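Hi Y.,

Following your request, here is the sequence exactly as I used it, all 268 residues.
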Amino acid sequence: MICLFCKENSTNSKSVEHIIPESLGNKEHILPKGIVCDKCNQYFAIKIEKPLLEKQYFRNARSRNTVESKKNSIPLGDGFVFGKGMDKVQFGFEDGKNFVVFENEQVLSRVLSKGKGSFIIEMNDEPEKEDLIVSRFLAKCALEFLINHIKDDFWIDEIINKEELDLLRNYARYGNGKFWKYSQRRIYNEEDRFTDHINHPEPYEILHEIEFLYLECQVMYFVIVIFGIEYVINLGGSELELYYDWLKKNDNVSPVRRPTEKMINRKL
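Below is the corresponding structure, written out as tokens. Let me know if you'd prefer a different format.
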């Protein structure tokens, strides 16, 4: 067995690869041992996933949605308390209760002396666009989800050795080449809930969803939605125009949307 990314022998690798980090709510999308070697697994954890999760948007989104890390902790989210101006605080959630962390003792004393205070949670609607870490993270996920769909050893070897995927592979693992473009847009809000009268009639939330879009011209796009934001990357090259054309022809409806799935009207 050889590694999907470095193509070195990974027969003795012991770590499993979470395609999406556990800290983004993933408990199911996991690759078997050896698909990604221990060295590449550790590289992605430290150099790609850690800085991604530490970005202000992802940290605040995880805090707002109370998504635990693999160590069962929920990150602190940014917020403000009103006084003479706006002072920065942090919000946390533990044992079913919310709490506030004050960075300034004078601000804490002022709030305590009044016995009340007005707080707001900082809302970062989406990450900064054209971000290198996000781009390489999407490249990694695209290759891992592609191989995760295959159970036959022959076709697994085909993907690992496919030269057409080497540009994306080396970009994800080593950062080689120019910036790989990706599409980013919000398609629903974090607090939105859905029902599916066939697959899941009870209301549910969606932390992430994934789909591949394969066009007749043999161009394949990887589509992933995290906290309501759709990210799209081309597996064969840094190109998105054909995806935008596809959206126009399909009323801008994301490929991940199922006809049976309906968003709950929160005004009802």
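Residues 64-121 form one domain.

Thanks again,
Q.
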